[in-house]
């Protein structure tokens, strides 16, 4: 399945021209479900694009995501195609393995590749709150190769078994989150929040990095693990349940090898 998808995605950019693509508040219909798309502001209509598939939070839909300053505000000026699937009942089934929403998410990416030229080597998965947990679930069982997971304030149980994993994991969570509480480990271990990925990817000891601020009112602490099968990054802050200003754009810049900037 992975090899087939990569071959299809590599061929698709040579097709085109790319016309009749749904975008913005007009949902792309996929069977009995749908998703939203936001192309970069300066896209030339032909160049293959990295993809950020973002799962919305509980009670939301993808039309919010493609107009959200802290999400599309950072994909639109970085040449990234934003895909925002709509969850059934405005939520996601991330509670156990074999989620129908994982199959749907894979179908969204495949369908978008028919509408837009995408770069199959740069498929990123993100989500916030319940959407963050769904992003973890999808990254854990995706039939497609995922270059990076950018998860915000939502996880799945750390003893979950994963059939696959992203090449790069980045998770941010507020230590004071009152909605989806930070998953401390025994003895208040803060690194427990990414235990699943550290064990799945064969990570060495953590490397604390200097704290940083994207906006001066929030300081983010960072730990990084170099692993046998990729890298894991954990960002924490003293705040609550929110998407930190600029965090998604900061990660996209680093993944692209650029100096991070805001916005």
From TrEMBL:
GO biological process, one term: xylan catabolic process
Keyword Plastid: no
Primary location: secreted
Claim: GTP-binding is one of the keywords in the record: no
TM ranges: none
Coiled-coil stretches noted in the UniProt entry, renumbered to this chain: none
Domain Phospholipase/carboxylesterase/thioesterase positions: 111-185
One GO cellular component term noted in the UniProt record for this chain: extracellular region
Gene Ontology MF term list: feruloyl esterase activity
Protein name per UniProt: Polyhydroxybutyrate depolymerase
Organism: Sulfitobacter albidus
């Amino acid at each position: 399945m992975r090899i087939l998808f990569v071959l299809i995605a590599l061929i698709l950019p040579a097709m085109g021209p790319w016309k009749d693509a749904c975008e913005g508040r007009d949902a792309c219909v996929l069977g009995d479900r749908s998703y939203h798309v936001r192309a970069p502001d300066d896209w030339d209509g032909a160049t293959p694009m990295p993809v950020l598939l973002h799962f919305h939070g509980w009670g939301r839909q993808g039309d919010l995501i493609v107009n959200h300053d802290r999400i599309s505000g950072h994909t639109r000026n970085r040449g990234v195609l934003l895909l925002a699937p709509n969850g059934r009942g405005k939520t996601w089934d991330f509670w156990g393995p074999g989620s129908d929403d994982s199959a749907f998410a894979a179908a969204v990416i495949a369908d978008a590749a028919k509408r837009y030229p995408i770069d199959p080597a740069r498929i990123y998965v993100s989500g916030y709150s319940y959407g963050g947990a769904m992003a973890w679930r999808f990254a854990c069982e995706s039939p497609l190769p995922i270059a990076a997971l950018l998860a915000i304030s939502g996880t799945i149980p750390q003893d979950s078994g994963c059939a696959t994993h992203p090449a790069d994991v980045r998770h941010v969570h507020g230590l004071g989150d009152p909605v989806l509480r930070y998953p401390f480990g025994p003895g208040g271990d803060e690194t427990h929040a990414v235990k699943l990925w550290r064990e799945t990817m064969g990570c060495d000891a953590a490397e604390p990095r200097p704290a940083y601020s994207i906006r001066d009112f929030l300081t983010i602490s960072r730990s990084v693990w170099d692993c046998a099968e990729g890298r894991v990054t954990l960002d924490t802050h003293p705040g609550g349940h929110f998407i930190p200003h600029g965090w998604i754009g900061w990660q996209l810049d680093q993944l692209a090898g650029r100096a991070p900037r805001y916005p």
